[in-house]
């Protein structure tokens, strides 16, 4: 689930029809996905009935994500992806009327602009260190599509472990009078396993596509409200298939005196 900048999306597996001939009793097997699609995440199913589906091109590029929050009422959102000749993402379109346009400085993502009805309403800028690692983002509202008329909306600061996995993510709002950043919340990720993280793509959409945050799976997240000092802990337990890909994730949450838990299932092509 994509929560607080993060979205959870899931992909519906396209099921080929298996047919049986009455004359010969031979079974026509559905085509087996081959590289580079084989082994890619296709669907995440949640115990609430919600699901996210991911679709790829024949070259392995992600071309669509559909997230269904309430199957009974068909409440959902779909994101479609477009690439240039160099296979860099150029835009993401949602079926809710939003468009995200990507611009680069060399190989680094420089800005993502959000458009509604062709009008740029906000954009996110990216800051990197000397090694090309993303260290912060800044979001601005664009007024009347005038690049010189902007309002600073938020800021995020990132730190990482030596292996590249995300360690901390700190969010800042903007004081309405001074315009200065105000620390809102921080998330600390820890106890990573050594297995591939299928959830990383959901952290990337729609603003961070191509930026890796989770090479592996963090089995603990501690979320701290920086204004009140209150911390909430999320614990994650995974099971894996023979290819060491996660097939289930159970989460347990304790915060504000509440205990919650839930499970999701991962499917692959």
Strand order of the largest sheet: 3-4-5-6-7-8-9-10-11-12-13-14-15-16-17-18
Give the rounded overall mean pLDDT. Answer: 84
How much of the sequence is in beta strands?
A: over 45%
Poorly predicted ranges? 1-33
CATH C-level category of one domain: Mainly Beta
Count the DSSP helices: 1
Order of helices and strands: EEEEEEEEEEEEEEHEEEE
Radius of gyration: 21 Å
Give the overall shape: globular
Helix content: under 10%
- Structural class by helix and strand composition: mainly beta
CATH topology of one domain: Lipocalin
The CATH architecture assignment of one domain turns out to be Beta Barrel
Main beta sheet = 16 strands, antiparallel, barrel
**What is the terminal-to-terminal distance?**
20 Å
Walk me through this protein's architecture.
The protein is mainly beta. It has a domain at 86-263: Lipocalin. 2% of the residues lie in helices and 55% in strands. The chain contains 1 helix and 18 strands. The strands form 2 sheets. The protein has a 16-stranded antiparallel barrel. β8 and β9 form a beta hairpin. It is globular, with a radius of gyration of 21 Å. The two termini are 20 Å apart. Residues 1-33 have low confidence and may be disordered.
